[in-house]
Write a structure and sequence with these properties.
The protein has 310 residues and is an alpha+beta fold. It has 7 helices and 11 strands. The protein has 2 domains: 216 residues, no CATH class; 62 residues. The longest helix is centred in the C-terminal third of the chain and has 32 residues. The relative contact order is 0.14.
Length: 310
Amino acid sequence: MNLKVIRDGRPADSTLPAEELAAINAYAKTALTPEEVYTFSLILCDNEVDRDGERFTLRTLEELRGLFVGKTGIADHDWRAARQKSRIYRTELITDSARQTTAGETYTALKAYAYMLRTDSNAELIAEIEAGIKKEVSVGCAVARTLCSVCGEELGSDACGHVKGETYGGEICHALLDGAVDAYEWSFVAVPAQREAGVTKALGGKGGLKQFVKTPAGAPYAGEYAELIKSAALGKRYLSELRAEVLRLCLLCDEGLYPALSKASETMDSDTLAALRQHYETKSAALYPPATQLPGKRETTRFDGAAFQI
């Protein structure tokens, strides 16, 4: 999920509150002084739908609040130790009661406070943060489930059948990232994706394979993921063709039921649709038995052309 740096870094000669310094020193082997550290805050993630058509649930934000404490800040999701520049020492959830998300919830965001050392090697990065150049960041985390906003089932499963970005009953389907599993890191990046903070996100677990395979940890699984995508595409095509066949048979056997079945079939899984197809095939066979052009025994074929008259 996208992040945004809030420019509230402290100059070297300011007084850092004692409770803030104590939280920072919990991660330091030697006690640091206010003059040795630079602090800034971040909006890690929120409950708004992003450009990928995904959003965190409120429960997941609360779970991530604890998981991100102590996590390191790097650059471009490069997990080498040399890229470690800062660390989160405190987090909190903030809300804006005057603002509602596109899903109708009160806007809620996970805010983090990070520190870094005021060293010569970090001076350029601190200057870029202060100048607003380094502000787009992304997080690496894992979620347990990717739920459909329309039906609440696992998005893309047989029980769901909805497609992210498509409209159902006036509602645009999006993914709910539910159940925080782990938080890896947060990173300064250059390519924004979220509408407001404008950055890419890297998710692991079930909720973010598409992004996870683009990370160093997920790259070995890129080939397997590509095969899964191909299989999923074939499955969706089969489901679409099965749904079309059921609706065709419905028009033949029970035209009055077609409007209701047309809408209901959008949420039916493959097993339900297959059972409906079998039912309508049996019913259509009884309603429209095949007619033979051959006469019975000792009967003479009579042809008057009436069947071909318009």
